[in-house]
Amino acid sequence: xxxxxxxxxxxxxxxxxxxxxxxxxxxxxxxxxxxxxxxxxxxxxxxxxxxxxxxxxxxxxxxxxxxxxxxxxxxxxxxxxxxxxxxxxxxxxxxxxxxxxxxxxxxxxxxxxxxxxxxxxxxxxxxxxxxxxxxxxxxxxxxxxxxxxxxxxxxxxxxxxxxxxxxxxxxxxxxxxxxxxxxxxxxxxxxxxxxxxxxxxxxxxxxxxxxxxxxxxxxxxxxxxxxxxxxxxxxxxxxxxxxxxxxxxxxxxxxxxxxxxxxxxxxxxxxxxxxxxxxxxxxxxxxxxxxxxxxxxxxxxxxxxxxxxxxxxxxxxxxxxxxxxxxxxxxxxxxxxx
Length: 338
Known about the structure:
The structure is a single chain. The chain is an alpha/beta fold. The protein folds into three domains: 44 residues, Orthogonal Bundle (434 Repressor (Amino-terminal Domain)); 133 residues, Rossmann fold; 128 residues, Response regulator (Rossmann fold, 3-Layer(aba) Sandwich). The protein contains twelve helices and twelve strands. The chain has a six-stranded parallel β-sheet, sandwiched between helices. Helix 7 links the parallel strand 3 and strand 4. The protein is elongated. The relative contact order is 0.12.
């Protein structure tokens, strides 16, 4: 016969309610009692009936869905890790799916997650399919999005202040004395990529700067290499601002292959502040997004909506950026700005 919670309670001489509180962390129990209960659980081989626990707690599942755009992009692991750490504290599991920047794939992933009866979702994709969003709302599954949705019933959105970050990067280069500044950004079809590019163009205009180039590619090292090489050979900027750090790392390699020394011949700044940015040579100046904070904030807001009675109404949350100055930016050489 399977071991029951009553068996555990009898073994350590406490009530079943006490055992439940220890296992579900729903009430403060003395350390001595906790130790006794956990020892009995291990000795008897008791496993929690998750379905019954979820029913008692008024939620459909202990499973959360997390969608990311690109599992190869170093931006996402820290966000997902922080989200999962928070989820585990609440005895929830997070299933991570990759959409590869494809809105149709995002919608398919949502359908798969709904088939698993998820309790909530965290959508960290650069593009969303309206049918996927509608399906989550129709199933009354709360979701937190990153920079692609408007807050409403069952929807909260974390908005990254891209304009602030691009302003920080552009003003840093301008303050060093650069006038011939170019921009390399992400794909035309990605809303987040085009927001960063548009911010660069608008802020440059406000600063009375005439950018030498603002070119699109994909968010990859290879894309950054190819487009940076083109811009460097045809427009000869003294500085480049990249829409993410992978692009900037590609541009760093392109500069090297063209015989340009960074930052003497070219100043280079990225966006996102991924872990690799501090380990390039020279180390990369980058606009930092607090990825762990995004993950924690996403879970906390999702948890709040899941625990809300009735139809939860989401909120709009804002994440600020911070410029991290390293070795890849410096004042331009006189011949570059002549």
